[in-house]
């Protein structure tokens, strides 16, 4: 059983970086990042361990709740200084809950167990819009900020790469599941998600380091 | 024509690749724009610094000009009055009572004039304070001072309101521009009449200064080394987002119009 791949290594490095650099962070959203990365690593490990025994759709369906909850909350925290209130976050969580439960229990009730691919599509689109909106807000902001070392900017960039890049795979998720017959480790899906995950966690690790440096600089 | 699953999967892979490339360009654009924002901010800071430096220099020049005027006045006016007083005093013959009384009356008059001159000088020393009452009042005071010499006939037209909403930096630079132009007229124009006109046109203040002197070739003067004064006028007007139009021809006098937004 192969535990360490490029993908899992990237996740593990990101988790360790979060643990080392963020545990003293003042922001709840950044500290929550440690917990989220722990969930990511645990989910991935559990999936590797159990995939030959039981289907892991349930596991990833459950993980989706953590993913949506964390990424949405994190994005909301970035928009908060620009005057966006909590109602946006709750409205989005409401929409997500309706789509998620709808797909899980009604629309695909016949093919149980199944992965909530449509919900993932909706979530990805929402996050891409969130990331693009963040860029827009930064562009119109009169205050100059050095983006090359901005933790928020690289966090959003990582998310944008992942959610935008996975659009095609998400849209054709069912098709790929049916026709992408090569062994999973050489399948198109696997290669694409591997690349996306490596980009995502590399940029997030960099953003964690930037955040740590920002905190150190602001203290000195 | 039926498309095979392999082809569709290749298409999905290609689309994913394109979707992966797009954010790279997007991030690059955002970073580029941000760099321009930084450059713009630096330019803005440099402009503010230039304005501050120029303002400081202008304030010093206004003070210097005031001191020069005072020095001339002490030498040419008060100095003369006091010398005359000394001579008159030393020529008093106490035995000749009627002449002595006449001379004492003259000394009294000379002393009164000296006191008046000293008071005027004292007001002049507070030129910055004068500027705090407004640009128009400062210009008016300066022109009143010039009128005393009887060398020029002065026509001054000003609006009824005070200008610039407490932008003292702008007022100081405008006042210094006025002083520089007037100095040029005094030194080079051989004019007998000066026209100063201040007016408000569509959110701008226009200061028009004309004279009936000998005039000069503007283009030629701007090219020469001694054209620095004219360049300075243009540069200073530009610093407060204004413009300076200099018009003159030999034998027909000259005119300088400063237009600044306020």
Automatic annotation (TrEMBL), chain A:
<feature type="transmembrane region" description="Helical">
    <location>
        <begin position="30"/>
        <end position="53"/>
    </location>
</feature>
<feature type="transmembrane region" description="Helical">
    <location>
        <begin position="153"/>
        <end position="173"/>
    </location>
</feature>
<protein>
    <submittedName>
        <fullName>Uncharacterized protein</fullName>
    </submittedName>
</protein>
<feature type="transmembrane region" description="Helical">
    <location>
        <begin position="113"/>
        <end position="137"/>
    </location>
</feature>
<keyword id="KW-1133">Transmembrane helix</keyword>
<keyword id="KW-0812">Transmembrane</keyword>
<feature type="transmembrane region" description="Helical">
    <location>
        <begin position="59"/>
        <end position="76"/>
    </location>
</feature>
<feature type="transmembrane region" description="Helical">
    <location>
        <begin position="6"/>
        <end position="23"/>
    </location>
</feature>
<feature type="transmembrane region" description="Helical">
    <location>
        <begin position="193"/>
        <end position="212"/>
    </location>
</feature>
<keyword id="KW-0472">Membrane</keyword>
<feature type="transmembrane region" description="Helical">
    <location>
        <begin position="88"/>
        <end position="107"/>
    </location>
</feature>
From TrEMBL, chain B:
<dbReference type="InterPro" id="IPR050482">
    <property type="entry name" value="Sensor_HK_TwoCompSys"/>
</dbReference>
<protein>
    <recommendedName>
        <fullName>Oxygen sensor histidine kinase NreB</fullName>
        <ecNumber>2.7.13.3</ecNumber>
    </recommendedName>
</protein>
<feature type="transmembrane region" description="Helical">
    <location>
        <begin position="12"/>
        <end position="31"/>
    </location>
</feature>
<keyword id="KW-0902">Two-component regulatory system</keyword>
<keyword id="KW-1133">Transmembrane helix</keyword>
<keyword id="KW-0812">Transmembrane</keyword>
<keyword id="KW-0963">Cytoplasm</keyword>
<dbReference type="GO" id="GO:0046983">
    <property type="term" value="F:protein dimerization activity"/>
</dbReference>
<dbReference type="GO" id="GO:0016020">
    <property type="term" value="C:membrane"/>
</dbReference>
<keyword id="KW-0408">Iron</keyword>
<dbReference type="InterPro" id="IPR011712">
    <property type="entry name" value="Sig_transdc_His_kin_sub3_dim/P"/>
</dbReference>
<dbReference type="Pfam" id="PF02518">
    <property type="entry name" value="HATPase_c"/>
</dbReference>
<dbReference type="GO" id="GO:0051539">
    <property type="term" value="F:4 iron, 4 sulfur cluster binding"/>
</dbReference>
<keyword id="KW-0808">Transferase</keyword>
<keyword id="KW-0547">Nucleotide-binding</keyword>
<comment type="function">
    <text>Member of the two-component regulatory system NreB/NreC involved in the control of dissimilatory nitrate/nitrite reduction in response to oxygen. NreB functions as a direct oxygen sensor histidine kinase which is autophosphorylated, in the absence of oxygen, probably at the conserved histidine residue, and transfers its phosphate group probably to a conserved aspartate residue of NreC. NreB/NreC activates the expression of the nitrate (narGHJI) and nitrite (nir) reductase operons, as well as the putative nitrate transporter gene narT.</text>
</comment>
<dbReference type="InterPro" id="IPR003594">
    <property type="entry name" value="HATPase_dom"/>
</dbReference>
<keyword id="KW-0479">Metal-binding</keyword>
<keyword id="KW-0472">Membrane</keyword>
<dbReference type="Pfam" id="PF07730">
    <property type="entry name" value="HisKA_3"/>
</dbReference>
<keyword id="KW-0597">Phosphoprotein</keyword>
<dbReference type="GO" id="GO:0005524">
    <property type="term" value="F:ATP binding"/>
</dbReference>
């Amino acid at each position: 059983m192969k535990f360490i791949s490029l993908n899992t290594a990237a996740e593990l490095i990101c988790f360790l970086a979060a643990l080392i650099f963020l545990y003293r962070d003042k922001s709840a959203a950044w500290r929550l990042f440690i917990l989220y990365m722990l969930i990511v690593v645990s989910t991935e490990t559990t999936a590797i361990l159990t995939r030959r025994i039981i289907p892991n759709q349930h596991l990833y369906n459950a993980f989706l709740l953590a993913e949506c909850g964390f990424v949405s909350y994190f994005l909301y925290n970035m928009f908060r200084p620009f005057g966006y209130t909590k109602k946006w976050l709750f409205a989005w969580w409401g929409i997500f809950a309706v789509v998620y439960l709808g797909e899980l229990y009604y629309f695909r009730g016949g093919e149980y167990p199944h992965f909530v691919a449509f919900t993932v599509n909706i979530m990805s689109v929402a996050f891409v819009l969130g990331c693009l909106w963040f860029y827009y807000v930064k562009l119109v902001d009169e205050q100059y900020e050095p983006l090359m070392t901005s933790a928020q900017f690289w966090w959003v960039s990582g998310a944008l790469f992942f959610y935008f890049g996975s659009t095609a795979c998400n849209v054709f998720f069912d098709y790929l599941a049916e026709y992408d017959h090569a062994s999973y480790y050489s399948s198109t899906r696997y290669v694409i998600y591997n690349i996306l995950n490596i980009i995502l966690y590399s940029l997030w690790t960099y953003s964690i380091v930037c955040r740590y440096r920002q905190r150190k600089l602001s203290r000195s | 024509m039926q498309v095979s699953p392999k082809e569709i999967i290749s298409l999905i892979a290609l689309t994913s690749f394109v979707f992966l490339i797009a954010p790279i360009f997007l991030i690059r654009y955002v970073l580029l724009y941000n760099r321009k924002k930084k450059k713009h901010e630096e330019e803005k800071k440099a402009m503010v610094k230039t304005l501050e430096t120029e303002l400081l220099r202008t304030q010093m020049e206004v003070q210097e000009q005031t001191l020069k005027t005072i020095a001339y006045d002490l030498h040419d006016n008060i100095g003369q009055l006091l010398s005359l007083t000394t001579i008159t005093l030393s020529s008093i013959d106490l035995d000749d009572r009627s002449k002595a009384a006449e001379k004492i009356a003259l000394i009294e008059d000379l002393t009164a004039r000296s006191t008046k001159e000293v008071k005027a000088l004292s007001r002049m020393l507070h030129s910055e304070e004068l500027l705090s009452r407004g640009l128009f009042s400062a210009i008016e005071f300066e022109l009143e001072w010039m009128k005393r010499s009887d060398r020029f006939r002065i026509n001054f037209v000003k609006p009824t309101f005070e200008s610039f909403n407490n932008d003292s930096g702008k007022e100081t630079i405008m006042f210094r521009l006025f002083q520089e132009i007037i100095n040029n007229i005094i030194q080079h124009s051989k004019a007998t009449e000066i026209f100063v006109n201040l007016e408000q046109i569509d959110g701008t203040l226009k200061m028009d200064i004309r004279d009936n002197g000998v005039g000069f070739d503007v283009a030629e003067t701007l090219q020469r080394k001694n054209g620095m004064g004219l360049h300075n006028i243009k540069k200073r007007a530009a610093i407060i987002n204004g413009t300076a139009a200099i018009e003159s021809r030999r034998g027909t006098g000259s005119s300088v119009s400063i237009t600044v937004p306020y």
